[in-house]
Write a structure and sequence with these properties.
The complex is a heterodimer.
Chain A lengths: L24 H9 L3 H13 L1 E2 L11 E12 L3 E3 L22 E4 L4 E5 L8 E4 L4 E4 L5 E10 L8 E9 L16 E4 L1
Antiparallel strand pairs in A: 3-5, 4-9, 5-9, 6-10, 7-8, 8-9
Helix pairs in contact in A: 1-2
Chain B lengths: L3 H17 L13 E2 L7 E7 L1 E2 L12 E11 L7 E5 L12 E4 L5 E8 L11 E3 L6 E10 L8 E12 L1
Antiparallel strand pairs in B: 2-4, 4-9, 5-8, 5-10, 6-7, 7-9
Classes of the chains: A mainly beta, B mainly beta.
Chain lengths: 189, 167
């Protein structure tokens, strides 16, 4: 039976700190039963002279504490038209002659492109809001054009050319003049 | 030779006498025990809120994606020096222009940065001093920043950053 108190752990506030001498009342009672009064009193005297000691550093030392913070983000599929003209691709058809001309086709004057997220499970598709599209002209004239978009998905995420065409079928006998119309082009992914 | 009855009488008499004798009284010994303990300066850091960025659209959103988290710091009252929150070494050089990156599907990485206490998209505050002398809990906002235009494969991206308070 040791007489030294059990050392207290280094107290830093993280966990409860406690400590008791190893010599207990039970020890004294057992010593009395055994008639070991001298031993008992020696032990008690030893306890009286003892000061419980905590095994802590004599001086406060600098330290560090750490915690992990989780960072999460959800990247969603995305696509982007390289539309530089107020978000509109403009197609201008050549002069249309319903008698002598054949189908009239026009394309975007500058190279268009479309870029999408890489490694999409399904290649994005393109669709027009209205196709064919009616172009409105003078005297309630309507010139109908069909629209087409040609684009190949690049799964590296790089942009690839986008070709837009509008074709006015031959034989539309409409009042001469300027015709115009618009619709939306949507990439579905 | 005494008869058994006599022996029994003597035994009863001795027993009765024994019960009348006073019992020995022993005083309970007492001693003083002094307890001493040294409380060392300590700090506690807890993550109150992780960073969860809103959906990130690399192409159609020209603005950065931002999120905030919260770290609570509490130190022993009377701490002589302020606690410093420092960034860990959980930093990757793969994504150019960012100090951190989140890992995603197929070894894709999304670069981001963190700033303590001050939202920033250029000058990131990597460490700050936290007043600790009052012993109270001090929340520190952690600002996250994902720059636009990182065209990576869609999916969930994540990272874990160790934040350290030194005292």
């Amino acid at each position: 039976m040791g007489l030294l108190p059990r050392p207290l752990p280094g107290y830093n506030g993280d966990v409860p700190d406690s400590g008791t001498p190893h010599f207990t009342r039970k020890d004294a009672a057992m010593a009395f039963v055994r008639g070991e009064r001298s031993i008992m009193f020696k032990k008690i005297a030893a306890i009286a002279a003892l000061t419980a000691m905590a095994a802590v550093p004599l001086s406060a030392a600098a330290g560090t504490e750490s915690a992990n913070i989780n960072v999460n983000a959800n990247v969603v599929a995305d696509c982007l038209f390289n539309v530089g003209d107020n978000g509109t691709y403009t197609i201008t058809l050549p002069p249309y002659d319903f008698v002598n001309g054949s189908a009239d086709t026009g394309t975007t004057p500058t190279p268009a492109s479309l870029q999408c997220s890489p490694d999409l499970a399904n290649a994005p598709t393109l669709s027009f809001g209205a196709n064919p599209l009616n172009l409105n002209g003078p005297n309630s004239g309507i010139l109908q054009v069909s629209l087409n978009a040609t684009w190949t998905y690049n799964n590296t995420g790089a942009s690839s050319p986008l070709l837009l065409t509008a074709t006015a079928g031959a034989g539309q006998n409409v009042p001469p003049g300027a015709y115009s119309g618009s619709t939306t082009l949507t990439v579905n992914f | 030779m005494r008869s058994p009855r006599t022996v029994a009488r003597i035994a009863l008499a001795v027993l009765a006498l024994a019960t009348l004798l006073p019992c020995p009284v022993f005083a309970s010994p007492q001693a003083n025990v002094a307890i001493n303990a040294t409380v060392t300066a300590d700090c506690k850091i807890q993550i109150a809120q992780n960073l969860l960025f809103p959906d990130y659209r690399a192409l159609s959103n020209p603005n950065p994606d931002t999120a905030t988290g919260t770290v609570n710091v509490q130190c022993s009252p009377g701490t002589g020096s302020a606690a410093i929150i420092g960034m860990s070494t959980n930093e990757y050089p793969i994504v150019v222009g960012y100090n951190y990156q989140m890992g995603g599907p197929n070894n894709n990485y999304l670069g981001y940065d963190l700033s303590f206490g001050t939202p920033a998209n250029t000058n990131f505050v990597r460490q700050i001093s936290v007043p600790t002398a009052d012993g109270n809990v001090h929340p520190v906002t952690v600002y996250g920043y994902v720059g636009p235009g990182q065209n990576v494969q869609p999916g969930l991206y994540s990272d874990s950053v160790t934040i350290t308070v030194s005292f």
